[in-house]
Amino acid sequence: MSDPHGIRPPTTGVATDEVFRVEAHGMDQIPDTDRHGGPRDLFWVWFGANLTFTFVINGALVIGLGLGFWEAVAIFAVGNLAFFLVGAASVTGARAGAPTLIVARASFGRWGNYPAAVLNWLVSVGYIILNTVVGVLALAVLGAAAGLGTGAPVLVAGLVVMIACTASVAVLGHATVQVMQRWLAVGLVVCTVALGVLVLPQADPSYGGTDGPRLWAWSVGLLVAVAGGPLSYIAICADFTRYLPRASRARGITLATGFGAMVPATVLGVIGIAAATRVEVVEATDPVAAVATLLPVWFQVPFLAVVVGGCVTNTIMTLYSSGLNLQVLGVPLNRARTVLIQVVLVTAGSAVALFVVDFTDALLAFLSVMVVVFTPWAGVFLCDTWLRRARFDVTGLYDREGGTYRYTRGFHRAGLTALVVGTALSALAADSVLWVGPLAAALGADLSLLGGPAAALVYYLLVRGRPAFAQAPDQPVTTTTEME
User: Fold this and answer.
1) Which of 153, 240, 360, 434 is 20 to 30 A from 259 (CA-CA)?
2) Residue 301 class from Cβ within 10 Å (0-12 exposed, 13-18 middle, 19+ buried)?
3) CA-CA distance, 295 to 141, in Å (whole number)?
4) How far apart are CA 151 and CA 113, in angstroms?
């Protein structure tokens, strides 16, 4: 069968997903003959991806809101429990053998899914830029310590190194990403434990925060924890379970993903909270250098290795998924080439973030926009998955002209209505650096996260009892090419 997207039809067998070979599959459904592995493999994928310094920054941001040490720890730990929702959403990948944004067509319709796919692609590029910039800052500190000087030339060199490390793995694809995450995680966890041993004893547990509205600080702190971690993965999670056998246990997928992501995110967040009680990390234009001031000289290089390695593992994962996202949007290139498109955009965006804008302000603005958009999207997607018990008519997901999920000319009115209602509530209840909604102003808190439950409730009320939500039978895969 020819492939109108220019993607080489893969052969059957696990050879289509070999380590250090370019992955043959793109956004097409993974045939049963190419499925392999088990839920426990997901633990290391998510563990490695979340050993990233951005969680240290997020923890410091929570302290910067004026909260005390124990308040910040509690809020960050509670927020990271949302990673188990990411795990629940990941089950769809194993059942359908398709990326998240293909499965989401069941929730929003083929064409109704496009706006969210565009926004998810933009958010993914934003996160890649964020982690790339943090890695470059770490490399710049390392360069200065090695006597290479400071300034633009060192930053540019660091940017080249970061792009080369991440793009080379993401281009190769799923199997290489999975193996590299495991290898990098083993080395990073040792240095991360040492980082905790050195920083946590310097924390001031008696730090009570600053005077200010506590309800506002708690609500924004929870937003930072959720948006800076679990929410950022919700639209890509199935991309890493679509190779699992169809019969993989939902509980195993949920727990392996949840614990694999939550443990490193929470530990690094607490390290950031501890550091912020001693040094103004949140006010620093270079948060890497700010944390480095708390460390002995002999640990500078291992610390910077943790920062760079963590940024690489996270960026590899996001870069891989954003390439699939472009295919979902109809870009007529194979997956490896779509990754290269991201590389060009990320390089340009990272240069702007390094030389033009303020890092902390840019991060807070980015998180505030993401919450308003993806909290309601996640609410609809999770509710739809629950109603269907993660069982889909896969042929319908890929059908361009009609099929089960065509709905009204490709738009699922119930899903889009719920999304609009949830987004409106999130926007009205948001208290961000970009705007303050009237509900947030009246209540003195940022309640934009409520857009998710609200969207889920509206969706449930609109679709409950419909025959279309009867469980679709498990369907064997009959094609190895994209059906578009």
Assistant:
1) 360
2) middle
3) 13
4) 43
Q: Which residues pair with 408 in a beta bridge?
A: 411
DSSP-derived letter for residue 6 is: -
- Residue 411's beta-bridge partner residues? 408
Average pLDDT over the chain reads: 84
User: Is 448 contained in some domain?
Assistant: no
Q: How many Cβ atoms sit within 10 Å of the Cβ of residue 475?
A: 18
> Using CA atoms, how far apart are residues 409 and 412, in angstroms rounded to an integer?
9
Arithmetic mean of pLDDT, 32-46: 91
Match 């808190």 to its residue by tokens: 445
63 CB-contact burial (10 Å; exposed 0-12 / middle 13-18 / buried 19+): buried
When pLDDT is averaged across residues 253-263 and rounded to a whole number, the result is 96
Which residues face 405 on adjacent strands?
none
How many beta carbons lie within 10 A of that of residue 157, not counting itself? 15
User: What ranges in 173-299 are assigned the alpha helix state H?
Assistant: 174-199, 214-227, 230-233, 250-276, 287-292
In a domain, 435, yes or no: no
- 3-state secondary structure at position 8: coil
Other CB atoms within a 10 A radius of the CB of residue 8 amount to 12
Task: Report which listed range, 177-181, 425-429, 475-479, is most confident.
Answer: 425-429
Three-state SS for 78?
Answer: helix
Domain of residue 109, CATH code: 1.10.4160.10
Local structure of residue 141 (DSSP, 8 states): H
What is the tally of structural domains in the chain? 1
In-domain check, residue 6? no
Signed CA dihedral, 401, 407, 409, 410: sign only: negative
Residue 362: predicted pLDDT: 66
